Amino acid sequence: MSLIVNGTEVAPPADPRVSLLDHLREGLHLPGTKKGCNQGACGACTVLVDGDRILSCLALAVQYDGRRITTIEGLADDDALHPLQTAFIEHDGFQCGYCTPGQICSAIGMAAEARRGVPSVLTGDLSADITLTREEIQERMSGNLCRCGAHNGIINAIRATVAAEVAA
């Protein structure tokens, strides 16, 4: 049994009751994924599993045997930041930065959902391509909370990068 975290095969925790979040932070020493509420309500712990966004505080690490897990640390390409990470800087998409890793991972997963045609409550025409308007992004990102007020910068960063990719 093994997990693939940021492209590297790693052993699962010895205790099968360990959450994916705790294994990432404490077992693998990847502090980018944050522990916010530890109840699945804030989105700070969002990571990507095979490209899909999940809340790592609600998942057991052993559930992801053989799956590709990407944390905020795995998004950069060597020394080059992921375009969304750069956009967060350019659009002031963070203040304290605590929610930023989860916001970025969630936005990448959200864009993949939109490309696949996964509707939200705001999607009017289920047969049309999804346009990630400001309102659509706000709805789709509503599970990721920012308590310090960087919401507008977060939405602007997403619109400037991943939303543009979906439209292309």
Fold and architecture overview:
The chain has helices at residues 20-27, 83-90, 100-115, 134-140, 151-160, 162-167; strands spanning 3-5, 8-10, 46-49, 52-55, 68-70. By secondary structure, the chain is of the alpha+beta class. Helix 2 (83-90) packs across helix 5 (151-160). The protein is globular and about 45 Å long. The N and C termini lie far apart (39 Å). The mean pLDDT is 94.
Q: Find the count of extended strands (DSSP E, 2+ residues).
A: 5
Tally the structural domains.
Answer: 2
C-alpha geometry = globular
Helix segment tally: 6
Q: How much of the sequence is in beta strands?
A: 5-15%
Helix content: 25-40%
CATH topology term of the largest domain: DNA polymerase, domain 1
User: What's the CATH H-level homologous superfamily of the largest domain?
Assistant: [2Fe-2S]-binding domain
List SSEs in N-to-C order: EEHEEEHHHHH
